[in-house]
Structure formats: structure tokens, C-alpha cells
Design a protein that fits this description.
The chain is an alpha/beta fold and about 400 residues long. The chain has 11 helices and 21 strands.
Length: about 400
């Protein structure tokens, strides 16, 4: 019998009204026949609040206890959605990740799924129940709760789909499908009806993920069809499968990050121990970091990192304390920056370079530039971020 996995992200679960909307989308899927499995993220903002509370009590919370705490966000969302479904007359039962059969290693905070036991959800489906699974979590072989890292609910959904031989995973978001830019920032965007796996992986690697890169890689390996759809009734969708529609523009997406900080550490000694300690310090912040480590000269290195701006002052103090014994090391943390990213096969073309030069002549050149095989990104002052987004979109996609 056909089986589909429906995944609701935190952006589509912001409160009771949105939970009721999600329940209606599940009811619509159930009415089409076949089996349905639901995976949920925590309600918007819940994970960050739990993490903040933990760090007020302990500056570096032990991983096992932190995972146990953070997993409660998804468990709450699963139980609430089950209540909404039962109110609609649909038998539903919530499952934690371990109860749903997801077994992981013991790398707390970044656990990897090592096995999916299908019996628990299969039994629920055979009994006529709709399983609602708390994403982002699993258990070790000895029963300890683990989490899969930020965005891990996407991994949960794809892993369950593969194990249960689902025909597709539908990801419900607050935006109807995948657009050439965020329609909440730019009104004149294009919704793309179909993309290949590589295009979404490009976007994820460029730092603006629609879906978790690991989930995309797994879906590609198993040729699992994905669908990104708006949670509102009648919303449009984008299919993610093996081939994009013919004629997709060489630069198909331009994105604008949230506010970021640009951290530069100069004169870092070429000492593996010092570098490892610094990276471990940064890793403990649990922030998404991206950057590069390059040689300044024969004796020293320069580390450049981008990180969310909200943590800037705290991180500044931590790094200052860490480096106080390294007298020669200099570092600078520039706040209130934005990253503008182009994604597509044509990012290295002359047309893109000309557009960047033209906008840079008006607003000032980018503060930093990053290149990938199919993405190109620029760090610009926060005040100019929207202007860069609009200008590049107009020049390269809506021209």
C-alpha cells in the first residue's frame, strides 16, 4: 500500500492555530487513501529557549542531559498535533524517535542514525493509527536519548521514508515551495515547480538550506521524491527529484542571510593544539559556522568565520579569554553583516561578475567573497543586504 511521510517544520508550527492547520493537511492526506506517517519539529522558537535555559544553568551543558532536554520540544509538538487530529476524529498516536525505531550512535548533539526498526510504526499503521513522530531524535542501543543536530527532523523524515519504502516525503513550510528568493523579503520571485537534488544541495552548501543536506543526500541516494509545499490550503509546491525542468536559469536562486558576524583571527600560530582548542571553543557555541583557514605567511594562519550575529558579544568575550596567552594573535569581530548568495551553474559567468560590479559601484564592494562550484556569496553591510538581494535578483533572474 502507498505510504507517504508528511513533515511539518517549526516555521509551519508557530502556535495552536498552526497546529490545527497542520492537522487539516494531515486529514486531507488521509482522505486520499494509503498510509500516512507524520514527522514534526518543535514549535518555532522552543529549541532556542530550551538551549538558552540550559546555558543559564551551565555554561557547557553535558551532551547527554542537553539532548534529553532539547528532545522535549519535538515531543511536545507531536503530542499536540495528535490531540488536534483526534479532535478531527482521526486516530493518532505520538512516538518519540526511539519509540519510532530510530537507533543512533552515542554522539550527543550530532548523532547519526545507524538503524531504523520498522516494526513500531508498521504495527500502528496496521491498527489504523496515524503515527506522529517527534523528529530530531533517536536512542542509542542502550536506550539513551540523542539528537541529530539542527534541522535533524528532516533527517528523521527521510530515514523513516526510506525504511518504510514511502513513495515521497512532503515537507510543509510557511512558503509555498522553493522560490528564486525568499518571497517574504522580495515580492517578485519565481516559484520553481521542479528541481533536481543537486540544486537543493547547492543551496544547502551555500549556507541557505531549504532542507537538511544530509536528508537531501539520502533522498538522492535512494531516488526518493521530495515535495516542498506551503502549509496553507491550496498552496503551491516544488518537486525535488532526479531532473529539473528544462530551461531552468543558470542562476536560479539568490538568498539573504539573517544578520551575521564576520570573525577574523590573524597571526594564528601553526600549532595544531592551539587551533584544535579554538575550534572546540567555537563548536561548543552550537552555532552554524562557515569559513576558511589560510596561511598568512610561513609561520602563521588566518581564520575567517561567519556566524549568527546574535551571539556576537558573548563569543567576543570567550575568544578574548582564550587568546589572552597568545600575545601575537589579533582578532576582529565585525557585526551587523549580511551574506548574499547566488546558486546555479552559471555563478562564475561574466554576466554575474558584471552584475556584482555594477551593484558594487553603487553600494560599495562586498566585504568578503566566497566561491563554490555552483554558488557564489558576498558579505555586505546589513543596511545594504536587501538592496543587493533585489539588484541581483532583478539582473540575473527577472531580467
Amino acid at each position: 500500500m502507498q505510504l507517504r511521510v508528511l513533515k511539518f517544520g517549526g516555521s509551519s508550527l508557530t502556535g495552536i492555530d498552526q497546529i490545527e492547520t497542520a492537522a487539516r493537511r494531515v486529514a486531507e492526506a488521509v482522505s486520499l487513501g494509503g498510509h500516512t506517517v507524520v514527522v514534526v519539529s518543535a514549535l518555532a522558537g522552543v529549541t532556542n529557549r530550551l538551549l538558552s535555559s540550559a546555558r543559564r544553568l551551565h555554561p557547557d551543558p553535558p551532551g547527554e542531559e542537553l539532548d534529553r532536554l532539547l528532545s522535549t520540544g519535538e515531543s511536545q509538538a507531536a503530542a499536540l498535533l495528535c490531540l488536534a487530529l483526534r479532535q478531527l476524529g482521526i486516530p493518532a498516536r505520538s512516538f518519540g524517535g526511539g519509540a519510532a525505531g530510530l537507533q543512533t550512535d552515542d554522539c550527543f548533539g550530532r548523532a547519526r542514525i545507524i538503524k531504523v526498526h520498522t516494526a513500531p510504526l508498521s504495527a500502528a499503521l496496521q491498527a489504523g493509527e496515524i503515527p506522529v513522530v517527534a523528529g530530531f531524535q533517536g536512542v542509542t542501543p542502550d536506550g539513551r536519548i540523542t539528537t541529530l543536530g539542527r534541522g535533524g527532523s528532516d533527517i528523521t523524515a527521510v530515514a523513516l521514508a526510506v525504511a518504510h519504502m514511502a513513495d515521497r516525503v512532503v515537507f510543509f513550510r510557511d512558503v509555498d515551495g522553493v522560490h528564486s528568493a525568499d518571497p517574504k523579503l522580495l515580492s517578485a520571485t519565481l516559484r520553481l515547480p521542479r528541481l533536481d537534488y543537486e540544486s537543493l544541495i547547492d543551496l544547502a552548501e551555500a549556507g541557505a538550506p531549504i532542507l537538511h543536506p544530509q536528508a537531501l543526500e539520502t533522498a538522492r541516494a535512494h531516488r526518493l521524491t521530495l515535495e516542498v509545499r506551503g502549509v496553507a490550503e491550496g498552496s503551491g509546491a516544488t518537486l525535488i527529484c532526479g531532473e529539473a525542468l528544462p530551461g531552468t536559469t543558470p542562476v536560479w536562486s539568490v538568498s539573504l542571510s539573517h544578520a551575521i558576524s564576520l570573525l577574523t583571527v590573524e597571526e594564528l600560530p601553526q600549532d595544531v593544539g592551539v587551533i584544535a582548542q579554538l575550534l572546540a571553543l567555537l563548536d561548543r557555541t552550537d552555532l552554524p559556522l562557515e569559513g576558511e583557514l589560510v596561511a598568512s605567511d610561513s609561520r602563521s594562519l588566518r581564520l575567517t568565520l561567519q556566524l549568527p550575529d546574535i551571539e556576537g558579544p558573548a563569543l567576543h568575550s570567550q575568544i578574548a579569554d582564550f587568546l589572552r596567552e597568545e600575545r601575537s594573535v589579533r582578532f576582529d569581530l565585525e557585526r551587523q553583516r549580511r551574506r548574499v548568495t547566488l546558486v546555479g551553474k552559471g555563478v562564475a559567468s561574466r554576466r554575474v561578475s558584471q552584475a556584482v560590479e555594477r551593484i558594487g559601484a553603487q553600494l560599495g564592494p562586498p566585504m568578503a567573497t566566497y566561491h563554490g562550484e555552483r554558488h557564489r556569496a558576498f558579505v555586505v553591510p546589513e543596511r545594504d543586504g536587501k538592496l543587493w538581494l533585489t539588484g541581483l535578483h532583478q539582473a540575473l533572474i527577472r531580467a
